[in-house]
Amino acid sequence: MTKKRVGVIAECVCDLPYRIISEYDIDIVYFLVQTDTGVFTDTDEITAENIISYMETGGKTSKSSAPSVEVYIQTFKRKLRNYEEVFLPTIGAAISDSYANATKAAKEMGDDGEHIHIFDTGHLSTGLGHMVICAAQLAKSGEDIETITSALSDLRDRVSTSFITVNTDYLYRNGLVNKTMKKLCGVFHAHPVLAMKNGSLTAESIQFGNYESSCMRYIRRQLKNSTGIDKTRAFITHAGVASKNIEQIKKLVAKLGGFREIIVTKASATVSSNCGPGTVGVLFIKK
User: Fold this and answer.
1) Are 217 and 282 spatial neighbours (Cβ–Cβ below 8 Å)?
2) What percent of the chain stands above pLDDT 90?
3) In sequence order, what E strands does 42-120 have?
4) pLDDT at 142
5) What totals of helices (H) and strands (E) does the chain contain, helices first?
6) pLDDT tier at 79 (50, 70, 90 boundaries)?
7) Which residues, in sequence order, are CB contacts of 167 under 8 Å at separation 6+?
8) What distance in Å separates the CA atoms of residue 106 and residue 114, rounded to the nearest whole number?
9) Nearest to 12 by CA among 103, 55, 56, 75
């Protein structure tokens, strides 16, 4: 059997819908989520709905971890059966061990490891998803590893990954914001807006007042410079947001952004366990 040129692997935290994963023959590696009751494989054994229900009914522990070195090795070997080279765009290395684990896995594979190519996207959720799609489209069209890597290097600084959260409870519990930020947001009933900047998750701004209104202000701010936005596609990714609110958000994103395609996706259990219910983000590419 003749092998195809480049195969793409992605992590479940890219939050892409199944139809896209299937269209580009993307293999998925799954993060783990630990709760008081055990350790579960994201997507297969636990969902965002499960983790939110668990935490809202008294659950104390909610921690996520990257796939193990062994899992990456198994996935790489399976992909190499059908492809000459394998390309893995990972969640930002500064916020997860996945890049380090995948890199170690490739080194442990000997000669086969020379055909594994790992790229730190510096993003998460569907910000990472945008980059996975770019890699998969180029791979499907027959481009080589050098071309794919160059394209993603250019794209990395143009992807906008941000989201607004109801509060800082989950973020603080998982070490993503400090005690001072948690205290300030609690005192002023503020809703933090976080964004990926240079590979790190940072507090970009704070919205005050009613949360639904704050979400709309967040979207207006993100899309205020519509002329500088690539109109191809935007993702609206959320954790446990009501359908009626998502529809309102989608209408505003369509009005302000003028995107040719708007895809609504649910955040993975891993992402949801770190940001909490009600979190929503609009993720897009800048020109």
Assistant:
1) no
2) 70
3) 62-65, 83-90, 116-120
4) 96
5) 11, 14
6) very high
7) 185, 186, 191, 192, 276
8) 7
9) 75
Whether the Cβ atoms of residue 106 and residue 134 lie closer than 8 Å to each other: no
- DSSP letters of the chain? -PPEEEEEEEEGGG---HHHHHHTT-EEE--EEEETTEEEEBTTTB-HHHHHHHHHTT---EEEEPPPHHHHHHHHHHHHTTEEEEEEEESPTTT-SHHHHHHHHHHTTGGGGGGEEEEE-S--HHHHHHHHHHHHHHHHTT--HHHHHHHHHHHHTTEE-EEE-S-SHHHHHTTSS-HHHHHHHHHTTEEEEEEEETTEEEEEEEEES-HHHHHHHHHHHHTS-GGGB--S-EEEEESS--HHHHHHHHHHHHHHH--S-EEEEEPPHHHHHHH-TT-EEEEEEB-
Please determine, for residue 140, whether its predicted confidence score (pLDDT) is greater than 90.
yes
Q: Interior CA angle at 152 toward 150 and 157, to 5°?
A: 115
Contact partners, residue 176, CB within 8 Å, separation at least 6: 194, 201, 274
Q: 200 — phi, psi (to 5°)?
A: -115, 150
| CB-CB contact of 164 with 215 (8 Å) | yes
Residue 187 has pLDDT above 80, yes or no: no
Distance CA 92, CA 163 (A): 16
Buried b (16+ CB within 10 A) or exposed e, 217-240: bbbeebbeeeeebbeebbbbbbbb
